[in-house]
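Deviation from plan, reported transparently: magnesium ion complex.
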Amino acid sequence: MSTLTADVIVDLQYGDCGKGKVAHHLCQSQKYTHVLRYNGGANAGHTIFHKGKKFITHQIPAGVFFGIKSIVGNGCVLDPVQFFSELKMLEEGGVDTKGKIFVAENAHIITDAHKEEDKREGVRIGTTARGNGPAYREKYGRTGVRAASIPELKPYLIDLYKEWYEGGDVHILGEGAQGFGLDIDWGDYPYVTSSHCTTAGALLNGLPPHAIKEVWGVAKVYETYVGSKKFQPEGEVFDKIGDVGEEFGATTGRRRQTNWMNMQNLERAIRVNGVTHIVFNKVDVLRTVGQWAVYDAEKKMEFKSETEMIDYVKERLSSLGIKKENIFFSESKETI
Ligand code: IMP
Ligand code: MG
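Because the crystal trials were delayed, the predicted structure below was used instead.
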């Protein structure tokens, strides 16, 4: 009997929490045979520092940096134009992509018409205009185009059933896109994306529930959101956090709105996704800003120091069943 296991990375806020960095870190353990992007399309922007070089990927999973089979799953929508330009960018950056990158044959395609529509209509909620929403709408309307019918993609196509169940031991790292606060069902509708940004979303790529071992939640020690709704409260501190944190979208360059971390939202995200490990990024940003606060139980709580806030967060999360040794606070762009 061969084994099939999966660890999953889930963003617990509104995207841009540093999933790419966590994926890059976990890949170094050498335990994964596959890295699977399980939702979203070219709307994502994963910033990865590899061997001192900065890469921004939109569709291709982080496994490729380590020569691990990297798969765009059927939960994703794929823009072939973007896909091929990303392959080129990686090759030119010295990353060997040959025989490493695959696309599920039942993943859906983002067409030029989807992108045009999203540019026109996406303004209402402030999409990334990458055609994501229209592509998923057609998928569910049963008028979509699957990867299998695109001749240029032939060399990259993969049957995920065969890959997971007929090829020996499989250890997957699931790399999510966007975040729980943008999830089509659990986010603040209609200010959401069109895919499932949850652990359940990873399962939709042909995985049985019992395969899931670790669920790595990723958050920042403050929140950011990019889109049309008003998110950032009044106060100079929030602009300062945005400036120090360089909070501009990796895909669209838009300025991200900021706010303090909300512990109740985090609690929802942890429970619904079954988080076992959690990484809080950008501790260095609040350190530079010099203020520490979170919202909890409907009110703002201020802390005198970084340690005071970290202790509070750790206690809060251990009451939710997360082991203290599985809670990480990161202050570096490159490591956790
Ligand atoms: P769409 O996914 O392009 O349809 O955009 C829907 C909403 O999700 C907008 O508010 C976008 O700014 C946001 N969004 C989409 N992808 C990302 C991401 O990767 N990071 C952060 N926000 C995103
Ligand atoms: Mg991003």
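The chain has a mean pLDDT of 96. We consider this an acceptable substitute for the interim report.
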